[in-house]
Amino acid sequence: MLSDEIKSHIVSPRNQGVMPGAHGVGEVLGPVCGDQLVVYLHFNGGRIKRASFTTHGCWAAVAMASWITEIVKGLAPPEALEVDAEALAREQAGLPEDKWPCARLVSLALHRAVRDWQRRQQVGDPKENGVA
C-alpha cells in the first residue's frame, strides 16, 4: 500500500524542471524500461541548497525523484551519497516491487550529480561551485 508521503508526491510533484546554473548534474537511462532521469543540484557552503529533476518516466520515477529532491536539501555530499531511494521505496513508500528499479534510477542520478559537483569543485572557482 502506498504511503501518504508518496501519494502526495504522485499528486503534486515538487522540484520538477531544469535548474539553470546547476553545480552538479546526474543523468541516467533505465536499461530495461527506457526511463530517462536527470537530477540537478545547487550547493551553498558545501551543502545541497536546491535540488530538481526532469524525467521521461513512469509515475513512480516522478514521485520518487520528487521525494528525494526534498530529502537531500541541506545534506553534505557524503550524506547525499548514502541516500538509497530503492530502500525508501521498499520500506517507507510502499511502492510495488516492479517499481523499485525506478527508485534505483533516482539514487543513481542523485549520486552522479553529487560526484559531478565533486569533480567540478576540484577544477573551478569555489564560489561558482557552491563551496564558499
Automatic annotation (TrEMBL):
GO molecular function, one term: iron ion binding
CDD domains: IscU_like
Record-annotated NIF system FeS cluster assembly NifU N-terminal domain positions: 3-122
Domain of life of the organism encoding this protein: Bacteria
Pfam families, per the entry: NifU_N (PF01592)
GO biological process: one example: iron-sulfur cluster assembly
InterPro entries linked: NIF_FeS_clus_asmbl_NifU_N (IPR002871)
Protein name, UniProt field: Iron-sulfur cluster assembly scaffold protein
Organism of provenance: Desulfoferula mesophila
Phylogenetic classification of the source organism: Bacteria, Pseudomonadati, Thermodesulfobacteriota, Desulfarculia, Desulfarculales
